[in-house]
Amino acid sequence: MKFINIYKTLDKIAYIQKKDKADISKSAVVIMCADNGIADSSIAEIAVKTAGGESEYSRMAKAADADVFTLNAGIRDKAMSEWLIDRKTADGTENIMYKPAMSDESMAFAVRSGIEMVKSLKIGDYKIIGASSINSGGNIPMEAVLYALTGYNAVSDCAKEIVSKYSFKSVNRILSTVGSFEIAAMSGLFLGGVLCDMPVMIDDDISAVAAFMAYAIEPKVKNIAVAGCCQSEISRQIFETMNIEPITDIQTERTVEGVSVALAVMKIALAAFKF
Predict the structure, then answer these.
(1) Residue 249 pLDDT
(2) Is the pLDDT of residue 255 over 50?
(3) What is the CATH number assigned to the segment(s) 6-266?
(4) Is residue 124 exposed (0-12), middle (13-18) or buried (19+ Cβ within 10 Å)?
(5) What is the pLDDT of residues 216-252, one digit of tens each?
(6) CB 131 within 8 A of CB 189
(7) Beta carbons within 8 Å of 114's beta carbon, 6+ residues apart
(8) pTM, whole model, 2 decimals?
(9) d(C-alpha 30, C-alpha 131), whole Å
(10) In the β-sheet with 84-86, what is the strand arrangement from edge to edge?
(11) How is the chain split into domains, by residue range?
(12) 36, pLDDT greater than 90
């Protein structure tokens, strides 16, 4: 593992924060949880465990000394926990093989939920936010959004088939038609970062696509987005387009691990080298 851009990233964070040095003394990982209609399963149980600090997702974030905020953006089944923030408008999305994922109104609510989350964390004096998710349906909605936005060809045939069924009059319509609640809510985190001068860290491919969606809506997103690592060539292509350099060359398949590793590395660097 090579920490190839850690000081560039710290400089960027300082610039976003309008400070001489980066301040990551109080960090948060926001985990957007939602089900997708293309899947039969539900992530209700793991979302509840994560909200209560009992899952691998929350333990990894805690290991990096980050507070975890788990948000129900659209879980299909009942997910009851006093620690789970309820921003649900529907029991998951529709099956995008046959119907648009969500209404424009539900999509807008999910995006606003992300924006409002950043505003709340800013008031709480948090310095940096990690954008992550737990979802059902795998990568299909993420690939469909990316393919509809860019025509990037290295996605599944399923995603291509889905996109071919629809026409899109706007970027927002791409999100509501073939997207997902977790992508919409994470897009809101990046848009909120622009409004609040808050650095928002990209975790995996799904959060990278959420950042790219936000960037398509508001190009200033590239100024507040920072990247932990490249999960795959999808993230790499997005980072190149947005001119973002990831901290490490590590590849990860775990949702919160990328955020946690990146936050931990930055904190070690600050302590060891007195950045």
Answers:
(1) 62
(2) no
(3) 3.40.50.10210
(4) exposed
(5) 999 999 999 998 777 788 988 999 999 998 887 655 5
(6) yes
(7) 30, 32, 184, 185, 186, 187, 188, 189, 190, 191, 192
(8) 0.92
(9) 5
(10) 84-86, 66-74, 27-34, 128-135, 200-202, 225-227
(11) 6-266
(12) yes
